[in-house]
From TrEMBL:
Source taxonomy: Bacteria, Bacillati, Actinomycetota, Actinomycetes, Micrococcales
InterPro entries membership: CdaR-like_regulators, CdaR_GGDEF, PucR_C-HTH_dom, PucR_C-HTH_sf
Protein name (database record): Transcriptional regulator
Family membership: Belongs to the CdaR family.
Signal sequence coordinates: none
Domain CdaR GGDEF-like: residue ranges: 200-336
Domain PucR C-terminal helix-turn-helix per the UniProt entry, residue ranges: 389-447
Alphabetical list of Pfam families matching this protein: GGDEF_2 (PF17853), HTH_30 (PF13556)
Coiled-coil annotated residue ranges, if any: none
Length: 453
């Protein structure tokens, strides 16, 4: 009733008055009719929401009900803006997803979107309304409706807030079911990763009962948060919430593209078994494109409270028996990829090259000593010229001592490069004539590029 009164307040103030200052009978009748219409509208909203709850409706069912009420597009997002349910005409949904409130990955930019009733004078932005989905102290995301050509009234927003309570029930139910299912799925996937899932036929049958397909060519993908949770100032509850959000993002992104691909979260990592549909030339590029698309969706534009993560991809496996080996490759790709590229690295095991061997040296002090001995004064940046000389040396080695090509790449005059080569040999030794020294210098430069050495 309060919301209905709020909607009627402005109309009362605008009633036409006669010479005596009293509203006409016709105007009062319009107010009464409008009040009855608002009450009927709120009763209709309540009835539909109650039916949705009693029917155990999902988020998709709730969105469909809202589209019937508000005529437009309805959607539910997570707290960081990932869309998890939509309803509306296909072309209308496509139009909405192209609005400026969504980033290039399809994430709703929740940081910039106010909740509650919109100002009618806010242009096209006033035609979208969002309310929070809250259960207790847990923020589950946003419920949003897009109503082209119409701004929701206070009564409508109140109905939308009631719908958000229904959404909270649906999400809580889904999370409870997912937690139980996820536990069994995660335990089975962990067994498969360490070689305890049984024979290939037995493991494939068990996976099929969980909705997964292991009877195909696959790669193991490991995504690991860059932040070290063992050395952080975050509270335990915050870490748990962030990791749960990270896992949900990966599960949704993978299942959207590969509904039968196994995916589960463990501690600071998420593991997925993504199909590698064909062998031969170009397979690695195809797999990395597929994984890159998933990573882009999970990462978004870095908004919504996301944490950075690095991703490693294994070589293809043909059998469940090969999964443990591939899991080790993916873990190695994550660790070395982060050393090579820094945070947010995406690396295939076959792309590690010599870094794969270098990463096997357990003592980084030994690697540091090797670099110091091989590069001498060039191992540090004590002088500004050291970085330039290292770059010259790197390009020389990469071009197999092709002076003309090196001068072209570095935009040096030929004589300038010859002078630099002479200076480098005075500092490092006769690397232009000693292949063993060239190998040593090439390794030292690669090691120096590794993070944490």
């Amino acid at each position: 009733m309060v919301n209905v009164a709020n909607d009627l307040g402005a109309e009362r103030q605008q009633l036409p008055a006669d010479a005596g200052g009293e509203a006409t009978v016709e105007s009062l009748q319009r107010v009464v009719d409008h009040q009855a219409e608002l009450l009927q509208r709120e009763d209709e909203v309540n009835r539909i929401l109650v039916q949705t709850v009693l029917a155990g409706g999902s988020l998709a069912d709730l969105c469909e009900a809202l589209v019937g009420l508000f005529e437009g597009v309805a959607l539910v997002t997570t707290s960081d803006g990932r869309v998890v349910a939509t309803a509306g005409a296909e072309d209308a949904v496509a139009t909405v997803m192209g609005l400026d409130c969504f980033d290039r990955t399809g994430r709703l930019i929740v940081e910039d979107e106010p909740v509650g009733k919109r100002d009618p004078g806010d242009g096209p932005r006033s035609e979208r309304t969002m309310v929070r989905i809250v259960a207790g102290t847990s923020d589950h995301g946003l419920l949003a409706v897009f109503t082209p050509g119409r701004v929701l009234t206070t009564t409508d927003v109140h109905g939308l807030q009631r719908a958000a309570a229904v959404a909270a029930l649906a999400i809580t139910k889904e999370q409870a079911v997912a937690a139980v299912e996820g536990k069994y799925r995660a335990e089975f996937l962990r067994d498969a990763l360490v070689g305890r899932a049984g024979g290939p036929a037995e493991a494939a049958a068990h996976a099929a009962s969980l909705g997964w397909d292991l009877d195909r060519r696959m790669v193991v993908v490991v995504a690991e948060t860059d932040e070290d949770d063992d050395h952080t100032t975050r509270e335990t509850d915050e870490l748990r919430s962030l990791q749960e959000r990270f896992v949900r993002a990966w599960v949704q992104a993978v299942r959207t593209r590969e509904p039968k691909a196994p995916v589960a979260g463990f501690s600071q990592e998420v593991v997925a078994l993504v199909p590698a549909p064909y062998g031969g030339e170009g397979e690695q590029d195809a797999v990395m494109r597929s994984v890159g698309e998933i990573v882009k969706v999970v990462r978004g534009d870095g908004g919504g409270g996301r944490r950075t993560f690095s991703t490693g991809v294994s070589r293809p496996v043909e059998s469940v028996a090969d999964i443990p080996r591939a899991y080790g490759e993916a873990l190695r790709a994550v660790a070395v990829g982060r050393q090579m590229q820094g945070e947010s690295a995406v690396m295939h095991f076959d792309g590690l090259g010599i870094y794969r061997l270098l990463s096997l040296v357990p003592d980084t002090a030994d690697l540091r000593a090797f670099v110091d001995e091989a590069l001498g004064p060039l191992a540090t940046d004590d002088q500004t010229s050291h970085a330039d000389l290292r770059q010259t040396l790197q390009v020389l080695l990469d071009t197999n001592l092709n002076v003309a090509e090196t001068a072209r790449i570095l935009f040096f005059h030929y004589n300038t490069l010859r002078y630099r080569i002479t200076k480098l040999e005075q500092m490092l030794g006769p690397f232009t004539t000693d292949p063993q020294l060239r190998l040593t210098l090439a390794l030292a430069l690669r090691i120096r590029q590794m993070r944490g050495v």
